[in-house]
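Ticket #4471: structure export looks truncated?
Reporter: QA, pipeline team
Priority: medium

Steps to reproduce: submit the single chain below to the structure queue and open the exported record.
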Amino acid sequence: MRIKGWAITGVVVYGLYWAAGSFGLQALVRSAIQADISSKAQNVALQWSPLRFTTRVDGYESQIDELTTLIAESAKVSIPSYAPNRARIDMLGPVQIVGPAWTIKVSADELSVGGSVQITRNGDLGRFDLSGSNVVIEDPDTNAATIEAHLVPSDKGVYDLDLSMTDVTLMAEIKTSIDPTHQLPEMVSQFSVNGAVKFDPAPALFATSDPIIAGMDFAPLKLIWGDIDLTVDGLIDIQSDGTPSGQLDVTMKGWETVLRMLAANGAIKPANLMGYQAMASGLASDDGSITLPLIFADGQMRLAAFPLGPAPKLR
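Actual output as written to the record:
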């Protein structure tokens, strides 16, 4: 009888805790929408989920700027009852970004974003997760079979990064600008980044200043597109003016295709194409790949000994 009494007490206590958390989340979401004069929602309703506090939001609209509006058909916001410092948003319908003369529509079989905060003074970001399957971005027409992105803290201000996309179809304008003579297939088979990102300061819920990316470690970045197989390893620091400093080791198969694309884009003169091909062939290893250092220093960049001009500003 004593065990039965404890069980009943436990159920009652958890029920009260679940009710307080669920109604609290609903009130928090509703007040957050009401506090933003540019946002509105048709409905904010409590949803039953035994181990999570869950609120469903339907017909959400919010102005991004004076000309652009975000519209989400339906979404579910949830917090695990056993880990109230974590949250997740599951999109239950398409999302649209509407401009003055254009609309970008994002739909997916599954699309969710989540994260957590650490129990620190500023509520530092604990982790960030994004996952989606059969993600389609219409107008421009872009899609991917899978998208995964994860940020997990490993040191003060440093987060391990795991990003992957498979079977990515780029919008026609981008594909044509990169590959005007159609050397490559329509679909990028794989794009992935494993490594780390350094922030200064670290992203936090109650931060007094915006986080800035201070460095990136690629271990590695990988791209497979047709016969191009590209791998990038290395570490770069980002200076206060936004220019990178450091070295990335670039290994590539399919360099013949890249040279033809550069000639088609006017980056190298067609008359010099055979000379570049002969030079690249001399640098290639037994498996046909070429490895060269991409060096960033003093605001400039160069590929091995070949100057490439000013380094891009990364922030």
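Status: closed, not a bug. The export was complete when the record was re-opened. Leaving a note from the reviewer for reference: The chain is about 20% helix and 50% strand.
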